[in-house]
Structures are given as structure tokens and as C-alpha cells.
Amino acid sequence: MLEENMNGHRMAQGNSNADQSSISANGTSSSNNCADYTTNGIMNHNSHQNQYSTQNQNVQLDNTNRDIVRLIGQHLKLIGLDRTAQMLMQESGCTLEHPAATKFREHVLSGDWQKADYDLQELQTIVDDDKLTKHNLIEMKFLLLEQKYLEYLDDSRPIDALHVLRNELTPLQHNTPRVHQLSSYMMCTNNQELYERASWEGKNIKSRTRLMDRLQSYLPASVMLPPKRLHTLLRQAVELQTERCSHHDMAWETSIDNVSLLSDHNCSDTAHNFPMYPVQILNEHSDEVWFCKFSPNGLKLATGSKDTYVIIWDVDPEKHQLKHRKSFECHPNGVSFVTWSPDSKYLIVGGTEESSELLIFNIDELKLHSKVSHSNDESLTCAAFSPDGTRFVTGGIRGQFYLCDLEGTILNNWDGVRVNSLAFLNDNQTVLAADTHYRIRSYCFETRNDYNMIQEQHPIMTFSVNSTDRLALLNISSQGLHLWDLRDKCVIRTYQGITQGTYTIYSTFGGVNESFIASGSEDNTVCIWHVRREEPLATLTGHTRTVNCVSWNPVFHDMLASCSDDGTVRIWGPKPGNGYLSSLISGSTSSTPATSSSSSLNHNDDHMGNSNNDWNIS
């Protein structure tokens, strides 16, 4: 394993129920939310209604069931089943909304603005002041007059529109900037220009419905339910199930429109193909294996060891089976890291702190392409390719920080920067470097600009950045694994379950749409998390010493590689029997019985990680 001393040097070591009440038109509150609203407080039923009342006079609905009935009734009316909604209200004895609210809705949707204004005044008398404040009342009146003004313009009645603007909107002394904006619409030469400038749909039921939805939000639910309330509750339920789904693909925008409401959300396909089971053990290395990395095209795996060799493995794209391709003898003190070019053609191989040169191999031709060596006193312990593959950066903890081309020529340098991990961002200019001051700083060799991105309280051993450049995953000495938001420059999660001391351990993003992360650990295990959850999704056992590095295949997402001080590289895949895996196990380089390795799956769906920034990072 690789251990970092107190200076960060790498060295080789041996080892609602909301209580709602109905409100009568005279302003008094009824104790039963299901009682009909009447003008005199007396229930008034016709013979048809009395039939339902007689049949169900013994039905007693509690608050929850009354709320559910009202939600269903609102949804039935929303989808056009008005008679069904009316029968539901009659049979249950409930009332969907206050009669004054019903009149208000009808007058708004029909464009009878004078009556809508009278209705608004009536609503003011029956709703408590703390539920319909003076400010909200003025805002509602402003919205009504705004629609009235725009409809006059749409009807080519500028004189009437001007009267509304001067004598009704302006005296409210509310939202003056909006009043000025509305006045500018008088200059529109045609209706289409008005629609575009006002972001308005014209004088029709659609724009009035949108207005009603906005007005409805100011009224308490006991008088008028919020717009599409059942739809909102179902959407929230789907979102919560999505957040609790251990295997959820974050790129899938789940909504009530694309999932079934008849069963709980479950990414079963992802779960069935999740790499949690040992399918192959590679044991060609003769000493501790410090690093492993799949190529960007997913067809190769490179592993580096204390035995001085880097081994290239081929991945069969049909059988997903790894086969030995080539071994290269590299650094005398061991291979501590490798990095692939974006086109999977070149491989940079670096050594320990004692190594002063980098080796660049052409993997297509299986030969050494070039070297980077400036001075025997230097230490080059990390590197990262530019996205275009024409350059790379390299550095070490002795103060070297270079920008080079593929021939090994140093194009530029930054003096006095002691780095131990690097990443090149997608803009092809910005380089992130973790240094010995517990920071990650941003560098641009072209503009010579640099600034702090991240400041930790303990040494940053290694870090990786996801494909969007939004998230950074940091392995912190004695602290474990931290997930940073690079845009907001804050820690958004601290993952549990990993044992991280002073050894250099590499973690990775992976899985479908990089929805998961995996890391080695000093307790000989591999830990896997969903990016949004702090507790491990799975803990993979089988290695007998520290797991130094984990790599997730970027193309074949059901393949995971881990390497350890026990001298082995383990390949993890779905449960045996899922498709190709039965043949994969029998054809492995060195197979192992399933009992020698295991995975522990955490089903604690009640645990929710820190949820700020769901990108959808959010």
C-alpha cells in the first residue's frame, strides 16, 4: 500500500392532519367539514340528495377521509367528470369548496370581472385576517385587474384598457414596476406582439385558468383547495420514492406522467445488473496492487503494482471477460498510478515519490511512446490528460507542476506547487490540483490565473471529478469520503462506512449516469454508495488486505474492478446467473468459489442523505 507521511509524501510500505372546518356564508364556522354551505346554515337537499343522505346517514368520515374525498372530487372536476364529482359530494355529505369560492371561480373563468371583484370582497368577510392578509387581498385584486386590462387590449379596446390602468390599477399603489410594464403594452401594434411581450396566451380559458390557479393559492384550503392538490401530493410521493431508491438512475426524470402509481418506484433493472458479486480474480501481479483503471472505451483495464509492472487487460465486449494482454516493467519502486488518454490509445504510468519520470505507452502498438524526465531530484506522482488528448499535466509533492505534450516536452510550468492529485476540466484549460495545504486550487496555464476551490481541514489524499465537472469526490486522511459541489464550493455529503487512515486510497464515480460512487477501504472492503445517500448501498468483501483503488467500467456499467495489498485484482459483476455471468465465472483467469467473497446490501431506505442540491444535481 501507499502511505503518506505527515507532509503528504507518498511512500511504499509493507503493509395534516390539518383541522379544517367548513365556513358558512354568514361567517360562522361549522364543526363538520362535510356539511353543505348554505346561506342560513341549514342543509338543503332535494329528493335525489335525500336518497343519498338516507342511505349513508350512518357514515361518519374522519378528518383524513373528508380530506381524501375533497381531493378526489377536485381531481374529478379537473378531468371533466363534473357529475361524478357532484354525486361523490352528495353521497359523502362533503362539500368541495365554499359557495362564495365557487362563484368566484365561475366569474373569473367567464371573464365577468365586476362580479369577480364582488366575490373577492365576500371572501374577505368569511376568511380570517391571518389567512387572507391585506397584502394578499390587494395582490389578488391586482391580478384580476391585470387580466382585465390585457383582455381589453386583446379586444382592441385601448380606451377601456387605459381606464383600468389609470383608475383601477394605479390607485392600488401595488407592484409599481409591473404597472409601468403593463402601460408599455399599449404600444403593441398587434395581438401577437402583445402575447410575446406579456408572455400571455390571450383572452381565452387557458389564460383565465392560469389566473385562477394563482388566485387560488392565496385562499385557505378550507375555502378552496390549492390547484391540482391530488396531483401535487402524488408528485411529491413519487419524488420521495425516487430519493429513497437505492439504485436510482439520476438521469431519469421521474414524474407521475412516466411511472405507474399502482406500485412503488423501483429501479429493478439497475439492481439486477449491479456489480456486487465476485466474478473474476486476477492474480498475475506478484506483490501489492496499488492502482487499477478502466480505459474510457471500457475495453481495457490497466493495473499497477509494487512489483514494478503495469499489466494491460482486454475486456471482451460480448462476454465481459478480462484477459491478459501485455505486461510492462516500469518503475523500480513500483507503479503507483496510471491514467488513460481520452481515446484510450495512450497510458501514462507513474511511480512513487522516489520516481522522477513518467512513462507514456502507446497501447495500440504495445510499446513505450515517450518519457517525461527533467531532473533526478524531481518527483512526479500524478497526472491527468486534457479532454482533447493532446496534452497532460503532471506534478508531485516536491514542487513540480508541468504541462506537457505527448512527446514528453514540457510546454509550461507552475513553480512551487506541491500537488498530489490532478484533474483536467472539460473546458480544456482549467486544471484542478490538490496540494499539501489541504486545498484544491484551480489553475489555467494559458492565463496564469489561479484561485482556491476547496479548503479541507485534513490532507486530501486523492480526488476525482465527475463527467459534468460539477462534483468532486475527495478521500480525506482520517476523515473518509467527502462530496463537494464545485459550483457552490461546499461539502454536500460525507459518506459513511469507509475506513480511511493515512494510506492512499482512490475512489470513483460510476454506474449508469454516474449515479453511484465506490471506494476502497483500509478494512479490506469495497464500499458502494448512491451519490445522494450517505450510508453504503453495498459493502463488498473478499480482499484480505487494504483495498487501494476501485475503478468502475465507464461503458459496461455492471463491471467494477478493485485492487488490494493482497496482490489481487477482483472483478465484480451482477449476481451469477444473470445473462453472461455464468460463463464469465467459469472462464475467469483465476476463479474463486462464491463463498470466499460476499456482498452486503443495505436496504435501509428510511435513511436520507443530505438533500441540498439535487441537480438535479438536484
Topology of this protein?
Layout (H helix, E strand, L loop, with lengths): L1 E3 L5 E3 L9 E2 L5 E2 L16 H9 L7 H16 L3 H11 L6 H12 L2 H14 L7 H21 L3 H12 L6 H9 L6 H8 L6 H12 L12 H16 L23 H5 L4 E6 L6 E6 L5 E6 L3 E7 L6 E8 L7 E4 L5 E5 L6 E6 L4 E7 L8 E4 L5 E5 L5 E5 L4 E4 L5 E6 L5 E6 L3 E6 L4 E7 L4 E6 L5 E6 L3 E6 L4 E6 L11 E4 L5 E4 L6 E5 L7 E4 L5 E6 L7 E5 L4 E5 L7 H6 L11 E4 L17
Helix pairs in contact: 2-3, 4-5, 4-10, 5-6, 6-7, 6-10
Summarize the structure.
With 618 residues, the protein is an alpha+beta fold. The chain contains 13 helices and 33 strands.
What does this structure look like?
- Strand 31 and strand 32 (569-573) form a beta hairpin.
- The protein has a domain at 22-231.
- The relative contact order is 0.10.
- Helix 2 runs antiparallel to helix 3, helix 4 packs antiparallel against helix 10 (205-216) and helix 6 runs antiparallel to helix 10.
- It contains 13 helices and 33 strands.
- The strands form 9 sheets. Strands 26-27-28-29-33 form a 5-stranded antiparallel beta sheet, with no helix packed on it.
- With 618 residues, it is of the alpha+beta class.
What summary fits the major beta sheet? 5 strands, antiparallel
DSSP strand count: 33
Helix segment tally: 13
Spatial extent as radius of gyration: 33 Å
The secondary structure category is alpha+beta
Share in helix: 10-25%
Strand order of the largest sheet: 26-27-28-29-33
How does the overall form come out from the CA principal axes? elongated
- How far apart are the termini? 37 Å
Low-confidence stretches: 5-12, 14-54, 579-596, 603-618
Instruction: Please state the average pLDDT score.
Output: 82
Beta-strand residue percentage: 25-35%
